[in-house]
Each structure stands twice: as structure tokens, then as C-alpha cells.
Amino acid sequence: MKITVIGSTGMIGSRIVAEAAQRGHEVTAVSRSGGMTKGASRAAAMELSDTSAVSATESVDARKEDRVTTQLFTVEHIRIGSTRSFGDVRAALESRVQALALDRVVPFMKKGDMAGARAELERQASPAGLTIVYTIEHGVGLSVELGSPRPAVAYGIGNLLVARSMTKHDLAAGLYAPIRVVLYGADDGTAVIEYDRPSSTFALFGDTAIDVVAKQLDMTLKNMLMDIAN
Length: 230
Fold this sequence. Notes:
alpha/beta; three-stranded parallel β-sheet; 9 helices
């Protein structure tokens, strides 16, 4: 809830701001000085006799809220348990799927050779039809807290040409392209792969053309990951 507290720098007002913020409310702190009160999301200065300033603040907040929409949808999550170790599965995945090298594509584009750029992207995606767009070493991040590396890595796996075939219908489809895949080591020493089924995430956009491509990605990704895992 959005709350405006007038006299927020006073003894009582500051306590109200802190309590409201602790309960998860978004607080605008209003005082003569305009000073920020601990827990407030924003501060505003006004003469306490001028209530029009409060109305103006609330009006601006309402206009901002009008620009935000939310939508609930169901995502199908997939977990693949492997009989192989984290290291073996990681090595197999990274040998099967190349890391995307855009520096090899850009020269073609600078020359206006789009056919050459497309051919290079296709070459990099062969034979899996996918590339590793990015890698995040979650295990290294965990070591900062735990003191030793953990076997965990996240990949963005996709194909720029396939992504184009979806984003040309709806640019927001880029939210789920590339597909996020997490690989980590289980307590028993085996590896686990997790990701969300592409057709379930791209279904958000309600576009038949996007759905067709997403279902193809379902099969391509699952077959590859199942093969690598076992």
C-alpha cells in the first residue's frame, strides 16, 4: 500500500514511517525540510498547512501505477537427474554446445553481408542448433559466503536466429530467449539440470507463430539435455 506520512521527521511521525515500512508499505515522508526519514521510499518538502502538495504526490503515484500491468501464468518446470558427475555433465554440455562468438559475426554485418552473418550463426549453432549465449558461475558466488566453490553454473542457451523468429512477432519474447538452464551438483555427487519448458514460458504472449517455435525448442533442448545427462 502507498502511504503518505505528514510530519515524518517528528518523534511520532518517524515511528509511523518505520512501522509502515516494516510492514511492507511504500511510504512518502512529508516534512517542512523534505528530509528523508528512515524507512521511507521518498521524501517531499511542504508547509504543513498546504495539503495540495499531498494530493499532487498521490496523483503522480496514481499515474505511474496506471503504466504497470501484471499477468499471472503457469510455467512448467523440468528437473533432469543425471547418473554422471557435475564435471562430466558440464564438460559434455560445453563440448556439445559452442559458446556464442559475436566477434565472428560482426565483421559480416559491418560489410552488409547478412547472408554471411547468418551462415556464421548457423555454423556456431551446429550440430545442436543451439549456442551458449552466456554463463554465470553461481558456484563461485556461493564460495564468497561458504568459503569454498560449489558445483553450480547457469547458462543462457539459445539461437539468435530462432530468437529472431519469435521477437519479430513480439519483442517482449526476448524476455525468455535465451532459455535459462541451471546445472549443479547434488549431495550424492551426481549432477542435476533444471529449466522451464520453453512452450510454457512463451505461451504468455498468446501468439501462435511463437508457440510453434517454442514447441520445437521443447524437443531440441530436452533431447540434448537428456542425452548429455545420461
